[in-house]
């Protein structure tokens, strides 16, 4: 079957689906499935905009709300993971995954599903070591810290995924697995993105948690986004025994969803011709969720996952064939995911803007049904209970927030002693936020919905690529050879990436003597959301 893979969508669903329709008209190619690698931005209304960690001037409504309201329907089944620029309050309603709109499915904090026999997994968010060992404690209304920590990867999700034994066909992460750049055309990557050099040479670019999963899961394909550049790599995995067959992963990072950008890829994936066309639960994954349910944590206290170090009575939570069989029997061998999407918030109305709409903590009926069916903890219900218990003890919520503000950014001991996934270098494709969230006030910030009628779709979308038979780049020529795919997509982008707007941006950091002339900036990989901003420079 044909699978389309997209990079950072940034809410531009109309553009993404129109590109697929253009592909069908021009090349008679119709994908059976669309995968999106984060920064999807499922924004339903003005309150959702307040829950995105971006400056107010970049909060645009875009077009997802049309699919949420039912005005439009996704023309192809779409499965996505979360990134670091999302309506976190909306995605938080579905920690185990669920439908955000008809035909558009979110994988949750971490998840595995099946489509036509193809096993698809993913993990949402980006890695930050100071939040990695905490529980999912955040809920709206967010403060300056929780609006960001809400999308940080947690160790419990990585732990669950590491319990998988059966092969994974496709895996998605938003940020790149650390070290993956050593298995592709590193020379061409640094030619296009020279500001990555320091992190590449020090091997601190990307997520160490994702790298750990890559080495454990060894999927056939791994797709990422986040860094707004197309990059292909081929990783041959080491075998653990002579009996184990060699495995390799084809890695591909996609660009962001804008005209003239290489944001979409089509690949052919082997599938089960006898399987149905419905999205299905994965029985092993459901069994793992049941087995690890006792590990759910909704506090901001840091803790380690069980391991074989003499401190834990149990550390192996992988599941037996018997446990998987029990899940199948519970479902009567019908793994089809129910189409039970329901509206849980008011939809944006261009004729009646509500700029002062406040986000609320919502328990989604899909999650309630899923947890009841499989005997799982509803994380949002547990958070609500914890808040009520806290109020009952007379604890002041403001004091708790102040305490969190003073300690939330403190580095906690972790198995990962670096925190460079956000990168310290300056990326012209990104908007920078200071460490405290800039000058925006989450309680009063304005929203700036994009016009109800976006710019007319242009046939200048020349960013459709069909995956070659092999994406392999040998390690011997990774730094010297010219990857044909990257040359074709990157060569024409060189001038574009040095647009007047980008040239006017100043690098912020220390001078030659190491003295910083401005407040230290932590780059948050903020994308340029409004397509018109970049179109002006094309």
UniProtKB/TrEMBL annotation:
Which ranges are annotated Basic and acidic residues under compositional bias?
385-395, 485-510
Cofactor(s) of this protein: Fe(2+); Zn(2+); Mn(2+)
Q: Spans of biased composition, class Acidic residues?
A: 396-405, 431-442
Tell me where it resides: Nucleus
Q: Which GO terms describe its cellular component?
A: nucleus
Keywords from the named record? Hydrolase, Iron, Manganese, Metal-binding, mRNA processing, Nucleus, Zinc
Annotated Polar residues bias: 415-427
Task: Please state every residue range assigned to the domain named Lariat debranching enzyme C-terminal.
Answer: 235-380
Q: Which domain of life is it from?
A: Eukaryota
GO MF terms here are:
metal ion binding; RNA lariat debranching enzyme activity
- The main location is nucleus
**Known InterPro entries for this protein?**
Calcineurin-like_PHP (IPR004843), DBR1_C (IPR007708), Dbr1_N (IPR041816), Metallo-depent_PP-like (IPR029052)
Question: Which residues lie within the region annotated Disordered?
Answer: 385-538
Q: Which GO terms describe its biological process?
A: mRNA splicing, via spliceosome
Q: Write out the similarity annotation.
A: Belongs to the lariat debranching enzyme family.
Q: What PANTHER family does this protein map onto? A: LARIAT DEBRANCHING ENZYME, RNA LARIAT DEBRANCHING ENZYME
What is the protein's given name?
DBR1 enzyme
Underlying gene: Dbr1
